[in-house]
C-alpha cells in the first residue's frame, strides 16, 4: 500500500516529468523549424532548375555518433540513437519525404532495415525483386534502395552482387539488422496438424537444425519472402510461417515459437544504394568490384596493395564474370574512404594490374 508521503512524491515526480515533456516538445519543434529553414536556404542557393540534396548520409552518421558519445545514460547508446534517428527522420520529411525502395512485400526484414536506417517518416516502396530496386533507383523513381548483401549464417546474397555487375549504382550506406525468426500461425491454424512451413529459402536454412529437431516430417516450402510466407498462412489451417516481428504484427499472426534461428548471432547486412557520392566521415568503408587477368598469383597480386598499405579488408567474395567462361570478379569491402591518400594509392595499383576496377562507393560505417 502506498503511503501519503509516497503518493506526494509520485505526484511531484509526475509533475516534473510533465514539465520535462513540455521542454522536449518545445525543443523538437525548434529543431523541426530549423530543418525547414535549412531547406529554404538550400533551395535559394541553387539555380531554379536544380534540385537540392536534403539527405546527407555523412551528416546523419556524424549526428548519431556524436549523440552516442555525449550519452551518459541511463538509456544505452543504441536506444538514444534510435530516438534521435526518428526525430531526424521526421524533420527531414518536412524538407522532403524520402522514397526508399525495398524488397517486399510489406513486413520483410529488408523493410525493417530500411526503417532502421532512415526512420519511420520515409515513404517505403515495396519491390518484387532485388533487380527492380536497382532499376527504380536508376530511373529516379525513388531516391534510395535497400538491398541485402550478406548474412552471418548463409553468406553472400548473390542476386545483389550480380545486380551491381549490371547497374551503375553508388553505395551510400550500410545497416546491420539482428535477425530473429519466429514460427508463426494464423487464427485458423491447428497447431497439432501443421504439415507445411513457408519461408524464404535463406530463413529455412537459418532454422534448419530447429526444424529438424521439432518438425522433422513437415514439408518446407520456399517462397519469395518471409512476409509472403506470413501472408499465405493467415487463412490456412495446416501451415505455419517462419518470419520476423514485423510480419507477425502486420498479418496478425501468433508466435508458436520464438527466436528459432540456429545461431544466436544471426544478422544480415544491408546496403543503401543511390546516385550521390558520400564525403568522408573518418569512419568509412569502401566497396569495389575487380576483374583480374586469369593467371597464377592473380589473387595475391590483388591483395598485395592492401597488405602493403595496412588496409583492413572486411569482406571478399567471388562471382563468375559475365565476360567469359571460368573467369571471375572479386567483390571487396575494406575500411577507409576512396579519397584517403592510402586508399587512393591502393586503388591506383589495383587499376594498373586489373582488367577492370569499379568503385561502388565509399560510405559511413553502420552506426546502428
UniProtKB/TrEMBL annotation:
It catalyses: chorismate = prephenate; prephenate + H(+) = 3-phenylpyruvate + CO2 + H2O. InterPro entries: ACT-like_dom_sf (IPR045865), ACT_dom (IPR002912), Chor_mutase/pphenate_deHydtase (IPR008242), Chorismate_II_sf (IPR036263), CM_dom_sf (IPR036979), CM_II_prokaryot (IPR002701), G/b/e-P-prot_chorismate_mutase (IPR010957), Preph_deHydtase (IPR001086). Keywords: Amino-acid biosynthesis, Aromatic amino acid biosynthesis, Cytoplasm, Isomerase, Lyase, Multifunctional enzyme, Phenylalanine biosynthesis. Signal peptide: none annotated. Pathway: Amino-acid biosynthesis; L-phenylalanine biosynthesis; phenylpyruvate from prephenate: step 1/1; Metabolic intermediate biosynthesis; prephenate biosynthesis; prephenate from chorismate: step 1/1. Its EC number is 4.2.1.51, 5.4.99.5. It holds the Pfam family ACT. It comes from the Bacteria. Residues 287-364 form the ACT domain. It is found in: Cytoplasm. Residues 99-275 form the Prephenate dehydratase domain. SUPFAM superfamilies: ACT-like, Chorismate mutase II, Periplasmic binding protein-like II. Residues 4-99 form the Chorismate mutase domain. Catalyzes the Claisen rearrangement of chorismate to prephenate and the decarboxylation/dehydration of prephenate to phenylpyruvate. PANTHER family: PREPHENATE DEHYDRATASE P PROTEIN, PREPHENATE DEHYDRATASE-RELATED. This is Bifunctional chorismate mutase/prephenate dehydratase. The gene is pheA.
Amino acid at each position: 500500500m502506498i503511503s501519503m508521503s509516497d503518493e506526494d512524491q509520485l505526484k511531484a515526480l509526475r509533475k516534473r516529468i510533465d514539465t520535462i515533456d513540455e521542454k522536449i516538445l518545445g525543443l523538437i519543434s525548434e529543431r523541426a523549424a530549423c530543418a525547414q529553414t535549412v531547406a529554404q536556404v538550400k533551395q535559394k542557393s541553387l539555380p531554379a532548375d536544380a534540385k537540392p540534396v536534403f539527405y546527407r548520409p555523412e551528416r546523419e552518421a556524424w549526428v548519431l555518433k556524436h549523440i552516442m558519445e555525449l550519452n551518459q545514460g541511463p538509456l544505452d547508446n543504441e536506444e538514444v540513437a534510435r530516438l534521435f534517428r526518428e526525430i531526424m527522420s521526421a524533420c527531414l520529411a518536412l524538407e522532403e519525404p524520402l522514397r526508399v525502395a525495398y524488397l517486399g512485400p510489406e513486413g520483410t526484414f529488408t523493410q525493417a532495415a530500411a526503417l532502421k536506417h532512415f526512420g519511420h517518416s520515409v515513404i517505403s516502396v515495396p519491390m518484387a525483386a532485388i533487380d527492380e530496386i536497382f532499376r527504380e533507383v536508376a530511373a529516379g523513381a525513388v531516391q534510395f534502395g535497400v538491398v541485402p548483401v550478406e548474412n552471418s549464417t548463409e553468406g553472400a546474397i548473390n542476386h545483389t552482387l550480380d545486380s551491381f555487375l549490371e547497374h551503375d549504382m553508388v553505395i551510400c550506406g550500410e545497416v546491420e539488422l539482428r535477425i530473429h525468426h519466429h514460427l508463426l500461425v494464423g487464427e485458423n491454424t491447428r497447431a497439432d496438424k501443421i504439415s507445411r512451413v513457408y519461408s524464404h529459402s535463406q530463413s529455412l536454412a537459418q532454422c534448419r537444425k530447429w526444424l529438424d529437431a521439432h518438425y522433422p516430417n513437415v514439408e518446407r516450402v520456399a517462397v519469395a519472402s518471409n512476409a509472403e510466407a506470413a501472408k499465405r498462412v493467415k487463412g490456412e489451417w495446416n501451415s505455419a510461417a517462419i518470419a520476423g516481428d514485423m510480419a507477425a504484427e502486420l498479418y496478425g499472426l501468433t508466435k508458436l515459437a520464438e527466436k528459432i534461428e540456429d545461431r544466436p548471432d544471426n544478422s544480415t547486412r544491408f546496403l543503401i544504394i543511390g546516385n550521390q557520392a558520400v564525403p568522408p566521415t573518418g569512419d568509412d568503408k569502401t566497396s569495389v568490384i575487380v576483374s583480374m587477368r586469369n593467371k597464377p598469383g592473380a589473387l595475391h597480386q590483388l591483395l598485395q596493395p592492401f597488405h602493403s598499405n595496412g588496409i583492413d579488408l572486411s569482406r571478399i567474395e567471388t562471382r563468375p564474370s559475365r565476360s567469359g567462361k571460368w573467369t571471375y570478379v572479386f567483390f571487396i569491402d575494406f575500411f577507409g574512404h576512396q579519397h584517403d591518400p592510402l586508399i587512393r594509392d591502393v586503388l591506383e595499383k589495383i587499376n594498373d594490374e586489373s582488367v577492370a576496377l569499379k568503385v561502388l562507393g565509399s560510405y559511413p560505417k553502420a552506426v546502428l
